[in-house]
Structure formats: C-alpha cells, structure tokens
Amino acid sequence: MRPSKRAPDALRPVSLERAVARYAEGSCFVKFGNTHVLCTASLEEKPPPWLRGQGRGWVTAEYSMLPRATLERTRRESTSGKPSGRTQEIQRLIGRSLRTIVDLPALGERQITIDCDVIQADGGTRTAAITGAWVALHDCIAWMTARSMLKVNPIRDHVAAVSCGIYQGTPVLDLDYAEDSEADTDANFVMTGAGGIVEIQGTAEKTPFSQEELLGLLDLARGGCARLVDLQKTAVA
C-alpha cells in the first residue's frame, strides 16, 4: 500500500493555474499534490550574446527552492554566490525539455526565460516544474502573437514530465517524498504530447533494476504524461 493510498498508476491531484503573476508575459502555478511550483515566462527582445546574428531565438530556465519549501530551512543559494550542482542540473533539464518542442528560428532573435520557483516541496519538483513551464511558455507565446510579434506559432508540441519508481517491490507513478526517500529505484521521464521521449533519468538506490522493470516504469510514465498533457490542453483551452 502506498503511503498516499493511491493506486500504483495514479497521479497525485494536479492543478495548473494560469496568469498568476501580474507582470510576467506568461505564468502558471502548478501543483502536484503538496509540491507547488510557480513558473513565470519572461521575454527579452534579444538572444543571448553567443547567439546574436544567427536568426534564431532561445528558451532557457532557472530553478530555485524557497528556504522553507522543505521541512527544515535551507540557505538561499544567492547567499553562497552560486547555484548548487543539483539546481544547475534541474534548470538545464527544464530548458532542454522546452527547447525540444520549440521552433527556435520561428521565435526570432529573442530569448524566453522560464523561472521555476518551488514554493513547497514534496517530491517531484523538477517534473512539476517542466509541466507547469510549458503552460507559462504557451501563454508567453500567446502574448507575443496577440501583439503580432510572430508569423507562426513556434511551439510544435506539448511536453510534460513525471516521476516513477519501484517502492516496496511495486512500480508506482508520481512519487511523493515519502516514497521517493524509500524507493528502490527512482526515475524521471520527460515526454512530448506525441509520445516522444525527451529524457529519462533513472537510478537504482538499492537493488539494480532489470530491463523489464525499466519498461514497466516507461509504460507508467507514458500513461502519466498523457494525462498531464490532457490537463495542459484543458488549462490553455
């Protein structure tokens, strides 16, 4: 029995609330159960310096966790002078995930930065951030389209992410912290609306997992991401 009493293939309650940040071109407050992340999209009318003159834009991301997003206060990374290795890894993952579904030349020489700030963490912050970031990006593109800044929509597909793991010998979907901290295997799957795989991150915490178990987790993730994409479609309809 899962601590949350959910079925093995059940997501936590998920919500995607749009237009929550007054000044951002796009925003989404995403909740995966007790994991809450604020995603905002900010437009700059210039690409990063290394991309200037190449006729295409860029989508990038920054990720941070508020000091009391967790059970005990964590020090703000800004006070230490640089983001941690974990933070850098997650924000690069978010940026890569979004760029796979964006036609960068169609964006023009511009940059969109997605800020993902974890308000409350209960496992799966990176997967919630990716899922909410797509909505914020969508609304930023809609903001640009309404102002005749784009000739075509540069977003080619949806992208969403979900965690899976083996908990007490059972493959389960969308781990919360109670499961994540005790799981034999923990994996994150990023997938497009068309079902394409963007990235898989998987680790055996205790016992190595088999190919059959990996494929079982992939099946769970495919169903979970499909449901998340449906929620994205409903949110932006």
UniProtKB/TrEMBL annotation:
Nucleus listed as a keyword: no
Swiss-Prot/TrEMBL catalytic activity: tRNA(n+1) + phosphate = tRNA(n) + a ribonucleoside 5'-diphosphate
GO molecular function, one term: 3'-5'-RNA exonuclease activity
UniProt cross-references to InterPro entries, sorted A to Z: ExoRNase_PH_dom1, ExoRNase_PH_dom2, ExoRNase_PH_dom2_sf, PNPase/RNase_PH_dom_sf, Ribosomal_Su5_D2-typ_SF, RNase_PH, RNase_PH_bac-type, RNase_PH_CS
The protein's assembly and partners: Homohexameric ring arranged as a trimer of dimers.
Its job: Phosphorolytic 3'-5' exoribonuclease that plays an important role in tRNA 3'-end maturation. Removes nucleotide residues following the 3'-CCA terminus of tRNAs; can also add nucleotides to the ends of RNA molecules by using nucleoside diphosphates as substrates, but this may not be physiologically important. Probably plays a role in initiation of 16S rRNA degradation (leading to ribosome degradation) during starvation.
PANTHER family: EXOSOME COMPLEX COMPONENT, EXOSOME COMPLEX COMPONENT RRP41
Database matches in NCBIfam families: RNasePH
Protein name: Ribonuclease PH
